[in-house]
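Weekly modeling sync, notes
Attendees: S.R. (lead), two postdocs, one rotation student

Agenda item 3: backlog of single-chain predictions. S.R. asked that every request posted to the team notebook include the full sequence so nobody has to chase files. The rotation student volunteered to paste the first one in as an example of the format we agreed on. Action items at the bottom.

Example entry:
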Amino acid sequence: MATEENNKPFLLPGALFAKDGDYVITTVLGSCIAVCLWDPKLRRGGMNHYKLPLWNGDGLPSPKFGNIAIAKLIEHMLEMGCSKRTLKAKVFGGGAVLQSASGFLNVGERNIEIAQELLMQEQIPIIASDVGGGVSRKVIFNTQDGSILMKRSQTGQ
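Predicted structure, as returned to the notebook:
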């Protein structure tokens, strides 16, 4: 779900946002991934925020899964008149911030891999990314100019 106030939507896990207009989309990521798509020709953009790499077919397909979230974001961009040929991607998150008794879970790593694989299959170039490591990130995406402001946590938590 995205909460929207004054053209500044905040994406919660499992949400995506892509609308025609100028927006400043914000999200906070740990092991989750945000894929930002931008069409520099039409100056339109969108972002998703997914928690897990793959939907296994149980229940309803949800954008909390990377394979669903990326496909849905591309679909929304195309519905706004964007061309897949002109789309550019920026990918953030996938930090190793979840720890189990046996060490760090590799959810973030698998989330990164699915983003890279699916965008490559769709022939959408990743022109910027900040992924992995042991940090969380705050990402702010301006859909008017495609710019990203990103801040890493200082503590590594």
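Discussion: group reviewed the output briefly. The CA atoms of residues 84 and 127 lie 15 Å apart.
Action items: rotation student to repeat for the remaining queue; S.R. to check formatting next week.
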